[in-house]
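Re: the request from the purification team.
They wanted to know what the chain is likely to look like in 3D before they choose a buffer screen. I agreed to run a prediction and write the result into the notebook, where they can find it.
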Amino acid sequence: MELFEVVEGKARILVPKAESIYDSPVFYNPRMALNRDIVVLLLNVLKPKIVLDALSATGVRGIRFALETPAEEIWLNDISEEAYNLMKKNVLLNFSGRLLEENGRAILENEKKIVINHDDANRLMAEKHRYFHFIDLDPFGSPMEFLDTALRSVKRKGILGVTATDGAPLCGAHPKACLRKYLAVPLRGELCHEVGTRILVGVIARYAAKYDLGIEVLLAYYKDHYFRAFVRLRDGAKKGDESLENLGYIYFDEKTGKFEIERGFLPTKPNAYGPVWLGPLKNEEIVAQMFELVREGFPLAKSRAALKLLHMLHEELDIPLFYDTHAIGKRIKTETKKLGEIIKALWQMGYRASRTHFSPTGIKTDAPYEVFVEVMKKI
């Protein structure tokens, strides 16, 4: 396996040479550097002590946790032997000391404890019951096969980070796959990225409730080709019940672009999409702290991209769904207007409105559909 070195954040990583990242014997995706930047920022705000990167591949995520966050004990894990051997090389590339290895596990005791593990992620998490303060699930595809075990491995007031890169099911292109994996009916069209995000959070809430756990969404968003959710677990059956109260369904009229939401565990009308999470998608204070870290110059791999994304997330109204000006403009046969002008007009009428990171042509607002259309026609 021929290797070359890349730098991401403070980490130096050896990566296999391959014609494409998908042909590589050990997966490394440079496009996910921003994904890793965001979690590094979050860990600097929340400061969990014992953290796990459950599906490590090259080890870049876990090594960045060790180099760039206050975490004291960092676990890197992968089922692939090639990945395990490469992780050991990459850890020694970034930290001095000697690895103590036994039975598929190598430990480096330095200023921090770094554990490199060669095992199935579910088996490791089952072994380390209620051990980790933070677990990051960043699989290739759906995270669902790891979610149950992760919820039992993280502490009952711990934090879980979940990435889903299977956009086709969550965005409604493969609705049967979404129903199988996420137990939800997806919505195809202009709202798919937000609905997909809310499906992901909703299924985490349902799985957590089985263990008498509720969730607080710290941050959930969509970027490029993936969905991302960070939740803090809340201990107790009552907290689980409270979380389930945030589940509901979406009704969408494709002819007009009008939507309705309905809270409840079961829909009361036909053609419902969901269940989805209808609660907040961010903790305002935590997102503000993450944004401030970047503004103050916290070193990242993609600082400008992180600043842009967090600024958008910080300013975005935290309410379900949005109106897509381009799609609605086509429906009502009017030219698409500047988003800033529409937002200003809505505020002047007493409604809240903002741009949304889910769509470059979308506006979140508490104005009724009829008011929104009237504003689009008048401006």
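For the purification team: The longest strand covers residues 154-164.
Please add any questions underneath this entry.
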